[in-house]
Amino acid sequence: MRVMKWSMIALAVAAGTSQFAMASSQEESKGFFGDQSLKLKTRFEYMNRDYKNGDSNSTGTSGYRQDSGISQLLTYESGFTQGTVGFGLDAMAMGAVKLDGGSGRAGNGLFAVDSEGDPQKSQGKVGGAVKLRLSDTTVKWGQQFVASPVFATDDSRMLPEVATGTLITSKEIKGLELSAGRFNALSAQTGMGRDSIAGLPDEDGLHGKGLSNAINIFGASYSFTDNFTGAVAASDAEDYFKKYYLNLNYTLPISDDQSLNFDLNGYKTKGDDRGDLVEALGDGHAGVDNNLWSLAAAYSLGAHKFTVAYQRSSGDNAYYYGVDGNSTIFVANSIQISDFVGRDEKSWQARYDLNMKEYGVPGLSFMTRYVMGDNITVEGADGEGKENEWNIESKYVVQEGPAKDLSFRVRFANYRANGAYEDYQKDNYDTRVIIEYPLSIL
After folding, report:
1. With 12 labelled, which of 56, 181, 198, 247 sits at a CA distance of 20 to 30 A?
2. How far apart are the C-alpha atoms of 357 and 303, rounded to whole Å?
3. 19: left (phi over 0), alpha (psi -120 to 50) or beta
């Protein structure tokens, strides 16, 4: 993600006043049906978490969690009617069917469970939104996916989270994008209804606690040059916390096949004065104020990319998210299992990527990374908390033919934590197989 300081917005606006496009998006509209699209994404996902050291899964009946399923996501987006103000409609329909996984192995979050602890055999939901466009400014109200660094819907399991509310996006000035929105509901990945804005990450066991409130968001991003971009974002999750986000991203070209990239991400969280979140967390939590930042440097050389990153968390507590979407964590060391955002935690990452296109196999890639975190303050623990995680991943995307864009992805993680931090996440091996086929129907 790419962000900038608040003071930069005024500079961006001043610099961009002479960069208005000759014709706006609305002026070039081809009509409601002329610009419509209909897409179908099919996903198969298998997930296994094998717990070590005698630990059982969340149901307490076995030492591992394992389930699999297949899902389909159908999305329709109309164009905008022609005229000064354009009108359009978006719609979505999605469903998933369980292929494997019983109550003794549940807990990976692929499917909701009933009162007996059994995963549902199927699940699905539908939604829609209306939208208006004036020049290069769009207003959308209804069910939608959101990708703001302070409010981001998650799509890491069978079905994505869906937010309900209003989002305004403006691109009137070349290189500058502004956004603002208000959302009052967030449907979980396993939720079939319009859940309220409430709940926290699974590690804290607090999903569903809290108040049914709304979240207000604002964002701005600007491309200073082709190689330097920045953005800021802010949110107010009522009765929980306020968040502020900053990102700066710069790429230094060295040669045709070499470059150096720097990526800075930062969050500042301020707990709501009313203290509802602190009350929900219970005794032993001093507050939710937190500062979290990461800096990554990546060197690309042909097919190879080498990345190192440092991340730091400080404040009254760990970094909290979930009530504001389960993907609201845009930092370098948020990886397959852990986010490395414990109270006072310091973490380091080393990563290597390989693109096999340079070796005659386009579409095939490999990645491995290792992250180590320490200095974690844990209430009542004897000593500091420590954790580490090692990931391996391989992905292949079909490049042409009738199966073009069909992808196969295998992910593996080895996670370990010391005794002071084992209540956050148990030692385990995490294996996932994901097959996706996106099909453009219209």
Report:
1. 181
2. 7
3. alpha
Apex CA 28: angle with CA 23 and CA 34, to 5°?
A: 170
Q: What is the pLDDT of residues 155-188, one digit of tens each?
A: 999 999 999 999 999 999 999 999 999 999 888 8
Task: Please report which residue ranges of 132-255 form alpha helices under DSSP H.
Answer: none
Measure the N-to-C terminal CA separation of the chain; round to a whole number of Å: 30
Give the DSSP H/E element, type plus range, for residue 217.
strand 215-223
Global confidence as pTM: 0.88
Residue 37 pairs in a beta bridge with 77
Cβ distance 196 to 212 under 8 Å? Answer: yes
Task: Tell how strand 85-100 and strand 407-417 pair up.
Answer: unpaired
* Residue 344 zone, left/alpha/beta (φ > 0; ψ -120 to 50; rest): left
pLDDT surpasses 50 at 23: yes
The answer to whether residues 67 and 101 touch, using CB atoms and an 8 Å cutoff, is yes
The token pair that represents 71 in the structure block: 């899902």
